[in-house]
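Field reference: sequence -> structure
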Amino acid sequence: MDWLCPGYSIPLSAHIAQHYGALTPALIISDIAAHVQTGDVHAAVYDLTEQQLYVSFMARSTGDHGPEMAYDRAWTMLNLPQLFALPPP
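Structure field:
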């Protein structure tokens, strides 16, 4: 999504301002992404201090049950130093 989407950027800004100084990946996932409803196909939260990436995808097969949008689906945490230390395939 581009940056000029008032329907998303205004609520996103308001939620970030509300939690300024106390943002955590868990709070971003549960409160900000879920309420703003951004990340329908793919959603990612980067914690650069802890070098972690939290990611969710809209990977629901036809006929599957559960949430449709990425921001409502399960999130996976990737430890970036461990990930980048893996040898190439």
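Note: The chain is about 35% helix and 20% strand.
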